[in-house]
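Input chain follows. Return structure tokens only.
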Amino acid sequence: MIPKVLVGVPTSNFHRYCIDQFIKEVKNFSYKNYKLILTDNSKTHSFYKELKNKNVEVIKTGYLKRARSRVTRDHNLFRKIMLKENYDFLFILDQDVIPPRDAIERLISHNKDIVYGLYFGHHILNDKSNKVMPFAWRFKTRKGHWGKVRYLNPDEYNNKNLIDVAFCGGGCIMIRRNVMEKIKFRYSKNIDAWDDRWLGFDAYKNKFQVYLDPTIKCQHLYLNRPFLWKKLKEKNEV
């Protein structure tokens, strides 16, 4: 039997603007043995009811003030379901990141512990410039199992080969079961990073293989967001 894949997607009414396009695409992956589950961590039940009417499986999870807390909690719910129901892989997606239709089979074909898909977005760099960059980082220096990281450069993300990375954004991650048996999703309020960075940190600490497939180029539907993460940070909601 081909590997069993759980596709887990945390969402909320913040992403109502792109949810129809997202659901249409991910319900039509070409892979033959996957299950799609969304969580809704909105304040109210109205978006949950909308999702139920879109013929997708959705779990209503509680609202927490910090977005990182909500997403990390929901990722751990998917981890729990994966382990309990004997899935071989957990495929984590953000609700505004759409991978290619054949992404599942291509990602698991590499037979690695963690393989990311590639997507881009605007980043504020150290020189205060705002540039479109990949959500992918490699080690610049290493000390022990971790170190300083840098963005991928164009020669790397335009390559067709797997790239070893420190970590990537959490929008498109294929995670093998053996990783989830040892690692839970987490984050620190003291560091401006989501659980995707901590997944990379903990993976390297446990000697797992961490790679990016730069040929898995995803759509990132962020330009029409009706909200700004910067504003949410100012209100201590991230």
